[in-house]
Amino acid sequence: MAVTIVHVAEQAGVSPSTVSRVISNDSRISQKTSRKVRKVMDELGYHPNMLAKSLVTNTTHNIGIVLPRPADELFQNQFFSEIIRGMVAKAASIHYDILMTTGSNAEEELKAVERLVRGRNVDGIILLASHKDDVNISFLREEKFPFVLVGRSEDFSDITSVDNDNIAASQAITRHLISLGHRRIAFVSGPFDLTVSKDRLDGFSKALLEAGIPFDRDYVYESAFTPESAAQITKHILSLATRPTAIITTDDVMAFSIIRTLWNNGLRVPEECSVVGFNNTSLAQMCLPQISSVDIGTYQMGQSAVQALVQRIKGEGFEQARIIIPHQLIWRDSVQVPAE
Amino acid sequence: MAVTIVHVAEQAGVSPSTVSRVISNDSRISQKTSRKVRKVMDELGYHPNMLAKSLVTNTTHNIGIVLPRPADELFQNQFFSEIIRGMVAKAASIHYDILMTTGSNAEEELKAVERLVRGRNVDGIILLASHKDDVNISFLREEKFPFVLVGRSEDFSDITSVDNDNIAASQAITRHLISLGHRRIAFVSGPFDLTVSKDRLDGFSKALLEAGIPFDRDYVYESAFTPESAAQITKHILSLATRPTAIITTDDVMAFSIIRTLWNNGLRVPEECSVVGFNNTSLAQMCLPQISSVDIGTYQMGQSAVQALVQRIKGEGFEQARIIIPHQLIWRDSVQVPAE
DNA sequence: ATTATTTGTGCAAAGGTTTGCATAAACTAA
DNA sequence: TTAGTTTATGCAAACCTTTGCACAAATAAT
């Protein structure tokens, strides 16, 4: 069996409590004792058992993150790997680890959360991709368990969350396109049940409104975050009597697929149709033409999320309800003034 | 304080051991008692404390995964998110969670592994991106701690690992290019210290050898897994007196960057230069021209790694040392017969 | 009716820490 | 010296389970 704190204690001729205090740098321990104990710890190759420690302190230094349900699909999106990258980096720097779990459906997902929370496996939880009536949120609130949401909750306004101002971002894009002279602008949204989709659509329609352009439902589409889905919608757009001169999407992957589909059908981008993406993934600047997009500070969102969560866990600092990561419009080759 | 097993026991008029046995479906418990206890558990909203359980069973149901050191850089690569996706999916399906950690340098990385292992935070570990003299491997071997390696170890042959036959894959690509008529083929490799890079280069040179084409060191380059690095190398290639007619790379991102750089300098792909990638990320089929690549079953590797690890943990099944995931060459638009 | 067997449950130890409180030792002040 | 402080350490309880072993009750066999 592994060497425990009592072995060290015996060997050093002190009590386990003293060893424990040495480990935690308790000020009451004398220099001499501390040195002596540390020496023994080294000799014996002692390493504290975190489980035992966790059990008594009720603290694990683990942050749970629940991958969105159709993890399979969403993870393909660079957005997710990017945000997780930010989380892991930040967590590691403050000595936390990231515990990832997922469920293949809503029920399993909640079960997983329950398991983590009530099994005391994590100190806090980060929720990704919020939608309306998220049962996880209700559960966590009820349990008064520390958590932060990436995105915005439609149901509760007092939840610590990390988000962009998606409405403003989307509005700004649309404004810019309008200022270029575009009047017929299509909007290819991600799944409507996602709050982020709603917000972006919201910003879009606001910009139209303020410019006095009628909001045309036929120019609004719902797509999955997949190339296939976007391609299909694009084909439909191509079949329209009066085509839009610009298309705004909710993610670079969709933007890319749209561009490709247009291209394959003989429509040049941006000459015959402008396209703008979202999230500013590396894809946006890699492809040809480079895609105009919105940098939403994905990596930073990940970092901020764990930072905010840890603050909540420790009960320190202000419990700022909403942290807004600034966005930035990146204009690239996929946009220009309309042809006609 | 949360409700514990003894509360349940008291309420149900049995002993804690009985409750524990009910939970684990011990066959010795009578139907009647079981029902009674379960009812009380429900009423009280009891949920076992996993930490306590872990402490006594010495089992956590967590799998540790150590992100490669420059996690920042590598994670950008779709390969990583894809393989992790496979791991999480598989792990969730067999009721394991994934605990991710990382370190910003080799020393920190080892420290993180030590912490996980000796702190008994995980039941096993998956190592990514193996290179020569990996201290993590030595440590884990010494500790006799269950782990599997994604990739191949140059130092030890008896390590359970999940890998492709990179030599064969690379060789097959090269052969095919040769059969198309290419004679001057450049090889843009990932970092040389990675085993996977060595293997792919190895397959490349083997194919040249068997075709009687001299191996030209000036046609072999070392690149980081970044577009910038690949672009720089491409510029150098463009400056060569006799340019290659085809370029093989070790990853799609690099392939993409190469194509773009060639294009920007007036060289058409595949007409004037063929390019082939590796890993068959979604990028490969999304971009224009679509990139010929090698599907190495990344997602499946993630799944297999978890499966193999859990088998090792449970000590069941054969401890097959090396699991080889089959690869598949995907020929797309970026390759054709050489111009001259 | 007695013994042997099966079935269901409880006792108590073990797992490795942390920490409030008590105490011993050393020092300071009178 | 005596009392009062400070400093350094130890004791033992608590955290919540699991599990080997013992035991009692019920059933079966003689």
The backbone outline of chain A, from C-alpha atoms, is: elongated
- The ordered string of helix (H) and strand (E) elements of chain A is HHHHEHHEHEHEEHEHEHEHEHEHEE
Give the oligomeric state: homodimer
The CATH homologous superfamily of the largest domain in chain A: Response regulator
Sheet/helix structural class of chain A:
alpha/beta
**What's the helical proportion of residues of chain A?**
40-55%
What's the rounded overall pLDDT mean of chain A? 91
Termini separation of chain A comes to 79 Å
Q: Report the uncertain regions of chain A.
A: none
Order of strands across the widest beta sheet of chain A?
Answer: 2-1-3-4-5-11
User: How many beta-strand elements of chain A?
Assistant: 12
Number of helices of chain A: 14
- Most extensive contact: A-B, 53 and 53 residues
Summarize the structure.
Two copies of one chain form a homodimer. Chain A has 340 residues and is an alpha/beta fold.
How does this model look, in words?
By secondary structure, the first copy, chain A, is an alpha/beta fold. Chain A folds into three domains: 5-48, Orthogonal Bundle (434 Repressor (Amino-terminal Domain)), CATH 1.10.260.40; 62-164 and 299-326, 3-Layer(aba) Sandwich (Rossmann fold); 166-296, Response regulator (Rossmann fold), CATH 3.40.50. Chain A is built from 14 helices and twelve strands. Chain A has helices at residues 5-12, 16-23, 31-44, 50-57, 71-75, 78-93, 106-118, 135-143, 166-180, 195-211, 227-238, 252-264, 282-286, 298-314; strands at residues 62-66, 97-101, 124-127, 147-150, 161-164, 185-189, 220-222, 246-249, 274-276, 293-295, 322-325, 328-330. In chain A, the strands form three sheets. In chain A, strands 2-1-3-4-5-11 form a six-stranded parallel beta sheet, sandwiched between helices. In chain A, strand 3, helix 8 (135-143) and strand 4 (147-150) form a beta-alpha-beta unit. In chain A, helix 1 packs across helix 2 (16-23), helix 6 (78-93) crosses helix 14 (298-314) and helix 11 (227-238) packs across helix 12 (252-264). Chains A and B meet through helix 4, helix 5, helix 6, strand 2 and helix 7 of A and helix 4, helix 5, helix 6, strand 2 and helix 7 of B. Chain A binds a DNA duplex (30 and 30 nucleotides) through helix 2 and helix 4.
